[in-house]
Amino acid sequence: xxxxxxxxxxxxxxxxxxxxxxxxxxxxxxxxxxxxxxxxxxxxxxxxxxxxxxxxxxxxxxxxxxxxxxxxxxxxxxxxxxxxxxxxxxxxxxxxxxxxxxxxxxxxxxxxxxxxxxxxxxxxxxxxxxxxxxxxxxxxxxxxxxxxxxxxxxxxxxxxxxxxxxxxxxxxxxxxxxxxxxxxxxxxxxxxxxxxxxxxxxxxxxxxxxxxxxxxxxxxxxxxxxxxxxxxxxxxxxxxxxxxxxxxxxxxxxxxxxxxxxxxxxxxxxxxxxxxxxxxxxxxxxxxxxxxxxxxxxxxxxxxxxxxxxxxxx
Length: 314
Ligand code: OXD
Known about the structure:
By secondary structure, the chain is of the alpha/beta class. The chain contains 10 helices and 12 strands. It has helices at residues 13-22, 70-73, 95-113, 116-124, 148-159, 186-192, 212-217, 235-244, 265-268, 284-299, and strands at 2-6, 28-30, 40-45, 61-64, 88-90, 140-144, 163-168, 179-181, 195-198, 222-226, 247-252, 272-274. Helix 1 (13-22) crosses helix 10 (284-299) and helix 3 (95-113) crosses helix 5 (148-159).
């Protein structure tokens, strides 16, 4: 039996190395290279071609190569993991992913808080003009999405001295983080967030949640950080909100089309910071034990780690 990678746009070298280091006997295939489909028990996937998973009759587990599973859900033929006999669907949950994300967010928040965008623009004009510092007490950070990554980021930002609150779909007590939930509490959450961070999973409910209506409910001149998915954001609405001053700037790591097309208006916009989907990249060495542990669980009939809830879409 064997496992396979199905990830057309990703290099698998370091993944194979990390898995082989822990289990040199592991048989690993890489789609689309020819291999008997019936030997595959577990598929590691990222943007797999739609329909291809149907070719694998012995598949017991479909594992996303990241924290998100939205790339899997775009396949209408994805087997329903709740139906008996179908493969389980799992994602990678990793402390290093959470740590790296919180580091990126701390940097993005401080970049805005210490007004670096302004000083970078000044430098282009040889202009020496200190601004008054902003006060941490007057700057509330609102995090949409308080899963493993959101909680880790909230705690790290709190440690840095910021007041942090969160918003999630359903009620849950999260120690030390004041949390709002559901559509009913969205407006009051937004009215407090001087810096809005989106770390939501992409679902039918959250698609384009970052839109003009949302921006109009934030304190005037709020700052947006999107590290969720490009489809959380209505891109044209961001440009309008920046023009109108509803938002003072944005830091974006994810985009509707990736790589971001060369002629996209975001590239030249002075108030938008762009990074190429690097806020937190899965580290193969760090997640290899989790993949092998799930393979072992599959072989011994135990329930798998980090299974997704298909109804919730995450
Ligand atoms: C992920 C990602 O989902 O890299 O892990 O976006």
